[in-house]
User: What shape does this take?
Amino acid sequence: MALYEGIALIQEKQAVVLDLGTDYTKFGFTGEAAPRCIVRSEFWSAAERRVRRLHDYATPDELYDNLVHMLHLLYFRHVLVNPKERKVVVVESLLTPTLFRETLAKVLFTHYEVSGVIWADSPRLCALTLGTPAALVINIGAKEAEVAAVVHSCVVLQALVAQPLGAHAVHAELARLLDEDNGATLDLPDDVIEDIKVKTCFVSPLERALQWGSESPPRAARSVRYSCGARGSVTVTGRARELAAEPLFARDHELASLPDAVLQSLARCPRDARRALAANVVLAGGGAALPGLRARLAAELRRLRAQPPYAERLHVDEFRFHEPPGHGNALAWLGGAVLGASDAGAARALAREQYAREPRLRDWVCLLDNTPPHHPHRAYLDI
Amino acid sequence: MSHNVKILPGATVCEDCTLEGDITIGGGTVIHPRVTIIAEGGPIIIAEYCIIEEYSTIIHKKSDKQENPPKPLFIGAHNVFEVGCKLESPCGHIGESNVFECRSFVGEEVKIGSGCVIGAACRLTAPQTLADNTVIWGSDHHIREALEKQPSQLLQLDFLSKVMPNYHRLRKPNVHKRQPSTRQSTEPSPKP
Amino acid sequence: MAYLTQPDYVKYICSCGQLKPITSLYFCRHCLKIRCGFCICHEVDSHYCANCLENMPSSEARLKKNRCSSCFDCPSCFHTLSTRATTQQRQVLQDPAAGGDTKVESKQPKKMYYLSCFNCRWTSRDVGIPDQPVASGGWPERTNPHAARVNQLIDYYKAIAQQEKQEKIERERKKFNIRGKYITLTDKTGLTGAMARNIAGLPSSESSSSAIANFVPSVATAEVDELPEDIFTKEVNLNQITSMPQRLASPDWQPVSVSRLHPLAKLLSVKRSQRCRACDHNLTKPEYNPGSIKFKIELLAYYHVPEVKIISHEPVKPGEKTALFLKLTNPTGHEMQLRLLQPEDIPPPEEKEEPKSIDKSLERSLVLEKDTTAFKAIERQPNISATSRVTSPGVTLTLAQRDDAAEYDDDAQHDTNDIILWRKSNKLGVRLELDTSAEAVGGSPARALVALQYSYRNTVPPAPSAAACRDHTLYTTLLLDLGTVSSN
Assistant: This one.
């Protein structure tokens, strides 16, 4: 570590790692084991006199303003460094909207004049924290759960599966259950719902979950009185505590549950990588922090593996889970911090000069960026 | 002005405060000016070493459910009622070493144990029971449990009982120590 | 005060197109343009602790992770913790047992300190942190449980990058094509790292190969932690579980149980200096002393641009002319000539200021080369949709310079005419006519647009070569918020 810092002093300023999530933003320095701050992705808008969420925007200009304000807050309130002439590692989902990426690049390069940006996708970064050649990354974020297979630091793109099964799905279900159990439309704000979830909810094991669906439901866990300030108090029943996370595992004919997403992703992977991937599963994202979620997911995967349509296609015998070196909600961030600290990452940065010459970002969906040099179509692209 | 106010020796009670009904004030307790204590529903007994600051209000409310004869509202020792706080209670027992911070409000159906802190401007109206050492603070009524009771304000009491007579007219203690008082609990414990 | 508590009725259009009240605008004396927080460059000037007002050099701040070493925040409610002293009773009680020598010493009971929060009454004793014998500092520090593993990972990837680089160099030399295992990680490598190693005289390859050899990838297990058995039967004590903000306040640990909350070392604050993007001159620069709220450089628009306030106005009616009363103030130390114009009458800025001398044009071209591209990108077309226009009276108003002594004269001079209501030192009350378009819908917000032309004397000592061009004619556009258009 000391060695690294010595080099860093000669080389350049320590880069920062930025992960702008839907709910929480993680921001800190490369080479460190945890972000300096994990704050809600929102800021106080003086002109409107209200708190604005970063991801609430209607026009590109609005997004630009949001990003400027958010980054100002992060740089000058939390991390306290000059953005100028400093590299940034941007941790992004593979499914980040193009508008968001491009606006972020514009803000970073023109408004904050950073010297370079390293664009890195979260599955690869999560895999980076393990050091294994293959990893199946299940990232449960605020809005979506993404399953991606990473083999030798390459994302198997056709095996990318995303379902809207993030923390918000759990929140919605919890709000519904609370309304039902209290017999009133409570209309609790998001942060209260989140607090109830964090403090009381858990994911029940598979057998119990099946019992809930059957005729004889099990004896519910203890219910809790949750007092929410001046608004009075709410009863959180054992049923609500247990079943709030069930939407993640609810199967229908579309097979759109979280374990299905994992198995579908595996089935789309190359046959020879599947076993290695199944033996290297890692859960990331803040949504994965619910107690019992890992155990339940493991049990579900082991059960569904033997059932159609996966039984005859998958040929995977065992699922093994990793214990990553960091908290789930900042795991992708941690990967970014590791990547940014090694020279390999720094060398992949999009430099400011390069952006000034050609303001274009590499993107995996763009044919210009994903056609190999010897591909017959390449000639048509390089005009 | 009711004549049922019993002030035990050692208590410092300013004249400029409203005391109505059957009130007993324990020794060592300091009552600042402009305090309102109304015992309309039944007697109020304030134990020793309490501090009741300016503009605080303690009301023993009338209620239909009340037994006959009405149970007293007993306020334990070492309680601190800060400026402008309000306590309305039809019955019950308030433990020791609680702190009612400035402009806090404790409604009728709240039971309070010992060592609790009701934060500044917190309004407790919903029926609830505060376990010992509960701390409530902030506009969202965050709750936590403290490990130990709040430290008592003996130094402050000492200071107030010395300084108060220099600036305010005081009410004279009208109950003497040896005289058997109405209730055992009101008697100041023979502390040095 | 009105600017703090009331909505912004009068907004100026910044040179970047943002609409801001005069109090959040700056005035660059070198570009002679209005700037705002959006279009200037912010820089960290100095670090300080907002609680103890102690300055911290930025190198030290970096070492301490931008945390104050003596101040702490409450992990429960984030209020600042206070240090409280107690006399240790045990010491006193031991007195008789102790020998005669120690008796003198223990006459003064030993003071012990703990941290306590006055808001939520959290104390460091709640989580079992032992009391400290010194008032500040000495609190146990914790390290991230994963720090060692993360460092291992970093070393490993650095070694791989190193190896890749060397392989690549060799490949170049031998024209021997092997595709590395981790090719995607390092498909584009620079030489900076290797060069830095050479410069620093560090061993290059030996250590890296050992780092690769010794690295153990994370091991996955088939067993996963099941839920604790008692979760279905145990009563939940909400007070024992931390909330999300409490967890995220210490990202390294994210404690789940209240009993694992530790005092948070207070995050430092920064003093910022602000710079004009176009000319790189400082617009504000704070004094170094954290206790001082003054500035060394303070180019606020409030001190340079005429201030406009609405005194009163008649209800705005569609298609009608209504009266509007404004107060104009000259904040500068020089007499100011002021004209009210229509926004369209403002001459385009570039043509207006033709280079006076070759030097100046050269300077400007240098500046242009420097950084106007970035500035241009930030610029935006202002969003002005005004229902009304202030009719320009076509006279030049003269505002006297600011005179602090004149504040005490209370007789307003009534040299009235059609426009001027009253005049008082550097202030002027004017009566204007407001022309509202007939299309304005009743109930919609009424906004009026007006442009100001004002003379400005630049007090910056001129560059030796530049001729004495100190008086400038400047323009600014304002948007007045006049409530809503009345419907009848």
Notes: The two ends of chain C are 34 Å apart (CA to CA). Residues 306-484 of chain C form one domain. Residues 91-106, 180-193, 351-358, 364-371 of chain C have pLDDT under 50 and may be disordered. The first strand of chain C starts at residue 10 and ends at 13.
